[in-house]
Amino acid sequence: MSNPNEHLANSRTAAGNSPNILADIFNAAANKPGFSARVDTEEIVRRVTLEPQADIRRISLRTLQVQDVLNAGPDAVLPGPGNPGIVTRIATDVIELNSRAVGAGAKIVLIQDAPQATKDSAGDLVLFEWPAGYVVAEPAAFSQVADGDNVTPSAVPVHRAVMDRSTAPAFMFNTSLSRREMKSWMNGTLENGTLLSILSGLGRVVDSVLLTAILAATPGAFSIGAAAARGLKIEGLRGLVGTSGNGAGFNGVGMFCAANIPAEITGDMAQSLVGDFQRSAVGLFEDITLIANRLNLDGSMSITAVANCQALIPVAGALLPFWTVGA
Fold first, then answer.
1. What is the enclosing helix (H) or strand (E) of 65?
2. I need a surface site. Which of 32, 122, 168, 300 has the fewest CB within 10 A?
3. 209-221 pLDDT, tens digit each
4. pTM of the full predicted structure?
């Protein structure tokens, strides 16, 4: 399936205006006529063209809201001590809470659409270049210089990874909800849960994209000496332990670690990594696309979500602030 961001005319929605945007999209798709008719001047139908009953929305992650508690209904579900109960979150918060890389210090950069080409006063087409990405400033390397000597020039210690809007990979998810399922669940819970699942899944996409890019840069083996030589601080280092469990264990105070560095587990890679994740980011298009299709006469629906993101690692090569952890 091709990327609807490129080939479909879709409307952008500031989804903060609805408590359940998926219910709105499903309702719009269900009520859309499944055909278009061509009528002549005598009001005689000359041609009928079948059309999909679908609704397409581009929704801003900056404003989209979702409830992170699903058990709403007449039966009370106690939230537990210290839990505020039903919380409405902005979509980006849900994505970050479900990303292990963000928990380790990585950033998510919301990428806006580039400005459309315009014409100047002379009627000539004006094109814009609007770079977006993530910038890291490394400490400048000072050196002692004797009187009369010149300082050796250094490369600019500011690094930038630029997001390529035209080639950023598209990630898609599709599922179907039957009419019976939507009616049998408590009012709006299934739709809200599906939206929460989509946003949580984007957190996993962020991890997969970033960790894949880090491993593709072939980081070396971790050692305290290597981190010290790189100029990093111990408190800035975090570990992510993959499915192989390499280097994982609990220290003397019960903290989970990788190579004695505080760590978390992830299912999005097999290896284990230690590094300064604050020096990395993932660019995520700020608009996601949601496509609802009515599947049949009984009102069953399919929902497709499309998002684009790309890893942003400004500092690479010998300065790459990541290392692998052996078994």
1. strand 65-67
2. 122
3. 999 999 999 999 9
4. 0.83
